[in-house]
Write a structure and sequence with these properties.
Layout: H1 2-32, E1 35-36, E2 43-44, E3 58-59, E4 64-66, E5 71-72, E6 77-78, E7 84-87, E8 90-91, E9 96-97, E10 100-103, E11 106-107, E12 112-113, E13 117-119, E14 124-125, E15 130-131, E16 135-137, E17 141-142, E18 147-148, E19 152-153, E20 157-159, E21 162-164, E22 167-168, E23 170-171, E24 176-178, E25 190-192, H2 195-198, E26 207-208, E27 213-215, E28 219-220, E29 225-226, E30 231-232, H3 263-292, H4 296-337, H5 341-363, H6 371-383, H7 389-394, H8 398-423
Parallel strand pairs: 1-3, 2-4, 3-6, 4-7, 5-8, 6-9, 7-10, 8-11, 9-12, 10-13, 11-14, 12-15, 13-16, 14-17, 15-18, 16-19, 17-20, 18-23, 20-25, 23-26, 24-27, 25-28, 26-29, 27-30
Antiparallel strand pairs: 21-22
Helix pairs in contact: 3-4, 3-8, 4-5, 5-8, 6-8
């Protein structure tokens, strides 16, 4: 009984210390001017740093704030429509997370997310991006102004397009990005717009209609419209297209688990996605650093964004590695059952070369590509004065935009060319 008593006493002692620490953090927040509505119902974890929560932030009843990496900027409101859990998120100014679960995500100035959201690690919502209620995202990147309706699953996507709150890319209510295949893989990230032009905030918006879907991995160009109620299975590489649902085979046929088709498209789309994320990481390294200078909450978002982008790159590589490991088995079925000899040869080639491809992407020095255009752009960027990142981009002259786009496009091209040269496919 003595040992049991001592263990229980130690446990109770640790719990008391933890409780005291949580109470101390909450008191520190209140003393900083953070408004905690009904403090007795709000859980502030002991690892939260009060210095990272701005005065006048509002935290409503029933919320949970956790994580040493959590940062919440001025004018932000947490849990206005329902209890919200915020864990290791970086939140800039005037952000409204109205309810739900938010973990390992970044929210730049003016973002709004409705109640019952489920926002998981690797997600970045840039300035004034919005989502209504019951939206799920994971490793999702929404550029400024992109707006999502309600009841949406939009994981593993990058979406750009639009110039303002009145001219924005749209994801209609009940939209689904299908990111899990019958073969049990998730090498399915979709690129809607792109990074080199998207960051300049001067491209036509993309419209993805309500109760519609997109089967990843897909590439969709600016100005495209997917009507409500359709599921698109393909790529739209020409801008300004009205997309139709690709017909599904009417009559049943045998399904062979693990037997892939169109491996060239799958690999190309995944590599292009990776290339754009690598370019965006460089944008965060250089341009966002200038935008965030002197603002600890924006700098926390920039650093959080870099962490998210690094996570996405590793996730995409790991998903491709799993596909490569399945290629020998898939090629045998493709060759024997469907007599698709070229497809089988492509699959075996991808499997044989995957290690080299991964090494090239891992070791590629993105800093060396487009350096001249980057330096031209940054010189102008540093001289451009504006209140906030978005307004600063808007004030850029067309020549500066071209330099910035060319810099980032050279990074994308370097990734595509280095991998395509090995495979001999593009």
């Amino acid at each position: 009984m003595g040992l049991v008593y001592r263990l229980a006493a130690t446990h109770n002692s640790r719990r008391c210390v933890s409780e005291m620490r949580r109470h101390t953090v909450k008191e520190a927040l209140l003393s900083r001017g953070v408004r905690i509505i009904e403090p007795q119902t709000v859980e502030i974890a002991a690892d939260v740093d009060p210095a990272r929560i701005a005065p006048a932030v509002i935290i409503h009843a029933g919320c949970r704030i956790r994580g040493a990496a959590t940062s919440i900027g001025p004018g932000s409101v947490i849990g206005a429509e329902g209890p919200a859990t915020v864990e290791n998120c970086q939140i800039s100014a005037r952000v409204e997370l109205k309810g739900g679960f938010y973990c390992g995500a970044v929210f730049w100035d003016g973002v709004t997310v409705g109640n019952e959201a489920h926002i998981r690690p690797g997600t970045i919502m840039e300035e004034e991006a919005k989502a209504a209620h019951a939206v799920g995202m994971k490793q999702t990147i929404l550029f400024p102004f992109v707006t999502a309706g309600s009841l949406i699953n939009f994981c593993d996507c990058l979406m750009a397009g639009g110039t303002s709150r009145k001219n924005h890319s749209e994801i209609g209510s009940c939209f689904v990005h299908f990111n899990f295949t019958p073969h049990g893989d998730k090498a399915t990230a979709s690129l809607i717009g792109d990074v080199p032009r998207g960051v300049m905030l001067d491209q036509d918006p993309v419209f993805l209609g309500g109760a519609a879907g997109l089967v990843g991995p897909a590439r969709i160009s600016y100005g495209c419209v997917l009507p409500a109620g359709l599921v698109f299975r393909g790529d739209a590489l020409q801008e300004g297209q009205l997309l139709g649902g690709k017909p599904v085979r009417e009559h049943p046929r045998a399904f062979y688990h693990g037997a892939y088709r169109e491996i060239r498209r799958l690999v190309r789309n995944n590599i292009e996605y990776l290339a754009n994320v690598i370019a965006l990481l460089q944008w965060y390294q250089h341009v966002r650093r200038e935008s965030a200078a002197g603002d600890p909450y924006r700098e926390a978002c920039r650093r959080g964004g870099l962490s998210c982008l690094g996570m996405i790159i590793e996730e995409r590589l790991n998903r491709l590695a799993r596909i490569a490991a399945r290629m020998d088995a898939s090629a045998g079925t493709v060759e024997q059952v469907w007599e698709m000899r070229q497809e089988a040869a492509d699959q075996r080639r991808f499997a044989d070369l995957w290690t080299r491809i991964r090494e090239i992407i891992h070791t590629l020095d993105a800093e060396q590509y487009g350096a001249l255009e980057r330096d031209k752009f940054l010189e102008i960027w540093r001289r451009t004065e504006a209140d906030g990142h978005v307004e600063r981009v808007r004030r850029l002259a067309s020549q500066a935009r071209r330099s910035g786009t060319e810099w980032l496009q050279q990074i994308v091209s370097a990734v595509l060319n280095s991998t395509g040269e090995i495979l001999g496919w593009w």
